[in-house]
Amino acid sequence: MKIFEARQNCCGCTACVQICPRGALSLWPDSEGFLYPVVDRSACVDCGLCRRVCAFQRDQKAKNSPENDSTINPLKVLAVKHRNIAIRGQSQSGGLFTLLSDPILSRGGVVYGAGFCPDWIVCHQRAETIEARDALRGSKYVQSDLGNTFQSVRDDLLQKREVLFSGTPCQIAALRSFLMMGKIDIKRLLLCDLVCHGVPSPMIWRDYLAWREQKTGQKIKNVVFRDSKRFGWHSGMGTILFANGLLEETGVFSHLFYGRLIHRPSCYACPYATPRRVSDVTMADYWGIERAHPDFSDNIGVSLALIHSDKGSQALSEASERMEVVESDIESCRQTQLRRPAAPSPHRAEFWANYTQKGFQDASKRYVAKTLARSRLNALVRRSETLSRLVQAFRRIV
Ligand SMILES: Cc1cc2nc3c(=O)[nH]c(=O)nc-3n(C[C@H](O)[C@H](O)[C@H](O)COP(=O)(O)OP(=O)(O)OC[C@H]3O[C@@H](n4cnc5c(N)ncnc54)[C@H](O)[C@@H]3O)c2cc1C
Ligand code: SF4
Ligand code: SF4
Ligand code: SF4
To answer: 277 CB less than 6 Å from ligand 4?
Structure first.
């Protein structure tokens, strides 16, 4: 029995595994370290639930159908900043996640999001306190392990707890489908997704950290994927802090991520790279804020909030006293990830072939050397173009 045709048709959302009544599905990593469901034929009773729950394949098929009007826009588009600058500094963008989750925690609700498990593995966690929620702040550019969080959300909702679930759009679509199939009442559930560039391989992340620990002879004490406190909100660079106090930039890993070499194959065929979502609120960086709303722009972080439902509007209005907000529009904030999925690097196949044969260090060294050489060449070309423009302007004057 096949649950998906090709690797690009499975985003690893775990909904099929978590819904199977016979425990016949389990997740196994492929050669790139991404988890895929595998069926134990001896336990399967062919009930078909796993295929019906798969929102990702349904949405991929629906993407190009005439009924799917990708011009449908959010109810509201907002630029948002938490009034507390310290909280903005601890968040990835403008602190929207904290603004949305605070009221839920204060009413005794539960918040889910991606944090760190031991050994810096990125995994989804359940938070009932401010401290546990704070540990979910910050973007982790690795696919998070969802474990059995969908079942846990279902149990919370059955116990009439309020729940906020945050994650990538494919995780949100999957959770919604999982709950709908179980006929679970979702009126107490706030779904918050992200504008999503794609998720890198957990295996490359593990290899990268092992290499840095081996190289420095030190254990890792902290990781920040995008260290905006140190480099400013516009920078994509992260840092690793080692036990002896050494602080290092995440240069190689950031290159591999932004170079689109290590994304999950489904990310290059993602049906959610559009303003149309199944969540209540979409959270993102408001890229282009300096052009759209210059007075609101700064280098600490501004969130983009796309509101898709009345529940989403209500959640934002509950946070109104703690935030600064400017009404915006979809065209001003439409970054690439709201238009189309990331394209794979032309070197992706070469990178993975190299990785399989010679391992992480060899593959990453070759690729990073190539991209660094190319970006230096581009910078040189840009500089010489600027220089020749200056010379021409000078000639016109004299
Ligand atoms: C893999 C990834 C790709 C992204 N790509 C873009 C992009 O292309 N353009 C853009 O504008 N914004 C992107 N974002 C979103 C952006 O970086 C911020 O996470 C978002 O604006 C929320 O910021 P905040 O200040 O409100 O939240 P914070 O307080 O910093 O909270 C971070 C939120 O992100 C969630 N999260 C963190 N890591 C993961 C993960 N691995 N999987 C699922 N959920 C996670 C947490 O659960 C939490 O809800 C991406 C985020 C991730 C994780
Ligand atoms: S439900 Fe999720 S994990 Fe299962 S096949 Fe579909 S995309 Fe893959
Ligand atoms: S068909 Fe039913 S029993 Fe078989 S793997 Fe899928 S959900 Fe499980
Ligand atoms: S790019 Fe699409 S498929 Fe990949 S993690 Fe993001 S939402 Fe999921």
So the answer is: no
What pLDDT, in 10s, does the model give residues 188-207? Answer: 999 999 999 999 999 999 99
Provide, for the chain, the percentages of residues in helix, strand and coil under a 3-state DSSP scheme, each rounded to the nearest 5: 45, 20, 35
pLDDT, tens digit, 9 for 90 and up, residues 262-291: 999 999 999 999 998 999 999 999 999 999
What is the DSSP secondary structure assignment for residue 73, as one 8-state letter?
P
Question: Reduced to 3 states, what is the DSSP secondary structure of residue 201?
Answer: coil
Cα 357 to chain centroid distance, Å, stands at 29
Amino acid of residue 203: M
Task: Report which of 146, 119, 108 is spatially closest to residue 16, judged by C-alpha positions.
Answer: 146
CA of 177 to the centre of ligand 4 (A): 16
Ligand 1 centre distance from Cα of residue 362 (Å): 30
Chain centre distance of CA 123:
12
Question: Pick from 17, 19, 13: which is nearest to 271 by CA?
Answer: 13
The number of the ligand 2 atom at minimal distance from the alpha carbon of 27 is: 3
C-alpha 237 chain-centroid distance: 16
- Measured in angstroms, how far is the CA atom of residue 267 from the centroid of ligand 4? 5
Nearest residue (by CA) to ligand 3, atom 7, is 20
Q: Report the alpha-carbon distance of residue 260 to residue 254 in Å, rounded.
A: 10
- Does ligand 3 come within 6 angstroms of the Cβ of 17? no
- Chain region(s) in the chain for CATH 3.30.70.20: 7-63
Instruction: Given CATH 2.60.40.420, say whether it is the number of domain 7-63.
Output: no
